[in-house]
Amino acid sequence: MLDCSDNFATRHAVNRACVMHRKPLVSGAAIRFDAQLAVFDLRSASSPCYSCVFPEEGEIEEVRCSVMGVLAPLTGVIGAAQALEAIKIVSGAGQPLAGLLIADALKGEWRRVRVAKDPACRACGASPA
Ligand SMILES: [Zn+2]
Description:
It is a single chain. The protein has a single domain (2-113), classed as NAD(P)-binding Rossmann-like Domain (Rossmann fold, 3-Layer(aba) Sandwich), CATH 3.40.50. Helices cover 33% and strands 20% of the residues. It is built from four helices and five strands, in the order βαββαααββ. The chain has helices at 8-21, 50-53, 65-68, 72-91, and strands at residues 2-3, 25-31, 34-40, 100-104, 109-113. The longest helix is centred in the middle third of the chain and has 20 residues, at 72-91. Zinc ion (ZN) binds at residues 48-49, 51-52, 118, 121, 123-124. Residues 48-49, 51-52, 118, 121, 123-124 line the site of zinc ion.
Protein backbone atom coordinates (compact mmCIF):
# COMPACT_ATOMS: atom_id res chain seq x y z
CA MET A 1 0.00 0.00 0.00
CA LEU A 2 1.22 3.49 -0.77
CA ASP A 3 0.64 6.23 1.76
CA CYS A 4 0.72 9.66 0.17
CA SER A 5 -1.49 11.37 2.73
CA ASP A 6 -0.79 14.66 4.46
CA ASN A 7 -1.73 13.97 8.07
CA PHE A 8 -0.71 11.65 10.89
CA ALA A 9 -4.21 10.31 11.61
CA THR A 10 -4.43 8.88 8.09
CA ARG A 11 -0.82 7.65 8.12
CA HIS A 12 -1.39 5.74 11.34
CA ALA A 13 -4.70 4.31 10.12
CA VAL A 14 -3.02 3.10 6.92
CA ASN A 15 -0.13 1.68 8.97
CA ARG A 16 -2.49 -0.24 11.27
CA ALA A 17 -4.24 -1.74 8.24
CA CYS A 18 -0.89 -2.81 6.76
CA VAL A 19 0.20 -4.34 10.09
CA MET A 20 -3.11 -6.20 10.44
CA HIS A 21 -2.99 -7.62 6.92
CA ARG A 22 0.82 -7.99 6.74
CA LYS A 23 1.08 -5.79 3.65
CA PRO A 24 4.13 -3.73 2.72
CA LEU A 25 3.71 0.00 3.33
CA VAL A 26 5.48 2.47 1.06
CA SER A 27 5.42 5.73 2.97
CA GLY A 28 6.30 9.08 1.46
CA ALA A 29 6.03 12.62 2.72
CA ALA A 30 7.22 16.04 1.64
CA ILE A 31 6.89 19.50 3.08
CA ARG A 32 8.66 22.75 2.28
CA PHE A 33 12.13 21.60 1.14
CA ASP A 34 12.23 18.33 3.10
CA ALA A 35 10.99 14.86 2.29
CA GLN A 36 11.17 11.30 3.49
CA LEU A 37 10.65 7.88 2.05
CA ALA A 38 10.44 4.49 3.73
CA VAL A 39 9.28 0.97 3.00
CA PHE A 40 7.93 -0.99 5.93
CA ASP A 41 7.83 -4.56 4.65
CA LEU A 42 5.31 -5.94 7.10
CA ARG A 43 5.34 -9.34 5.39
CA SER A 44 8.33 -9.89 7.69
CA ALA A 45 7.58 -10.12 11.42
CA SER A 46 10.92 -8.45 12.18
CA SER A 47 10.14 -5.33 10.13
CA PRO A 48 9.45 -2.07 11.93
CA CYS A 49 6.20 -0.32 11.09
CA TYR A 50 5.48 3.37 10.61
CA SER A 51 4.44 3.69 14.26
CA CYS A 52 7.73 2.18 15.46
CA VAL A 53 9.48 5.20 13.92
CA PHE A 54 6.75 7.80 14.43
CA PRO A 55 4.77 6.72 17.52
CA GLU A 56 1.11 7.62 17.43
CA GLU A 57 1.30 8.94 20.97
CA GLY A 58 4.40 10.98 20.11
CA GLU A 59 4.66 14.72 20.30
CA ILE A 60 5.19 15.31 16.61
CA GLU A 61 3.85 18.66 15.53
CA GLU A 62 1.55 18.29 12.57
CA VAL A 63 2.48 20.51 9.65
CA ARG A 64 0.58 20.37 6.40
CA CYS A 65 1.59 21.36 2.92
CA SER A 66 -1.62 23.36 2.63
CA VAL A 67 -0.32 25.60 5.43
CA MET A 68 3.48 25.35 5.12
CA GLY A 69 3.83 24.85 1.38
CA VAL A 70 5.95 22.35 -0.48
CA LEU A 71 8.39 22.60 -3.35
CA ALA A 72 6.26 21.00 -6.07
CA PRO A 73 9.00 18.98 -7.82
CA LEU A 74 9.87 17.37 -4.49
CA THR A 75 6.43 15.72 -4.32
CA GLY A 76 7.12 14.42 -7.84
CA VAL A 77 10.47 12.98 -6.78
CA ILE A 78 9.03 11.25 -3.72
CA GLY A 79 5.94 10.05 -5.59
CA ALA A 80 8.08 8.55 -8.34
CA ALA A 81 10.33 6.89 -5.75
CA GLN A 82 7.24 5.43 -4.05
CA ALA A 83 6.05 4.08 -7.41
CA LEU A 84 9.50 2.55 -7.97
CA GLU A 85 9.42 0.80 -4.60
CA ALA A 86 5.85 -0.43 -5.19
CA ILE A 87 6.77 -1.88 -8.59
CA LYS A 88 9.78 -3.63 -7.04
CA ILE A 89 7.57 -5.15 -4.34
CA VAL A 90 4.85 -6.27 -6.76
CA SER A 91 7.33 -7.72 -9.26
CA GLY A 92 9.76 -9.15 -6.72
CA ALA A 93 12.65 -7.29 -8.35
CA GLY A 94 15.57 -6.34 -6.15
CA GLN A 95 15.01 -5.52 -2.51
CA PRO A 96 12.73 -2.96 -0.91
CA LEU A 97 14.39 0.22 0.34
CA ALA A 98 15.83 -0.35 3.80
CA GLY A 99 15.66 2.33 6.45
CA LEU A 100 14.28 5.84 6.28
CA LEU A 101 15.50 8.03 3.44
CA ILE A 102 15.50 11.74 4.30
CA ALA A 103 15.94 14.42 1.66
CA ASP A 104 17.10 17.99 2.19
CA ALA A 105 16.27 19.53 -1.16
CA LEU A 106 17.93 22.83 -0.37
CA LYS A 107 21.28 21.13 0.18
CA GLY A 108 20.66 18.42 -2.40
CA GLU A 109 21.41 15.80 0.23
CA TRP A 110 19.88 12.42 0.98
CA ARG A 111 20.52 10.59 4.23
CA ARG A 112 19.58 7.05 5.14
CA VAL A 113 18.64 6.44 8.74
CA ARG A 114 18.43 2.96 10.18
CA VAL A 115 15.12 2.11 11.75
CA ALA A 116 14.33 -0.75 14.10
CA LYS A 117 11.22 -2.49 15.30
CA ASP A 118 9.99 -1.19 18.66
CA PRO A 119 8.89 -4.15 20.81
CA ALA A 120 6.61 -1.75 22.70
CA CYS A 121 5.02 -0.35 19.53
CA ARG A 122 1.27 0.01 19.97
CA ALA A 123 0.63 -0.91 16.34
CA CYS A 124 2.89 -3.92 15.76
CA GLY A 125 4.39 -4.77 19.18
CA ALA A 126 3.80 -7.91 21.22
CA SER A 127 0.28 -6.86 22.16
CA PRO A 128 -0.96 -4.56 19.43
CA ALA A 129 -3.95 -2.41 20.32
ZN1 LIG B 1 5.48 -0.82 15.01
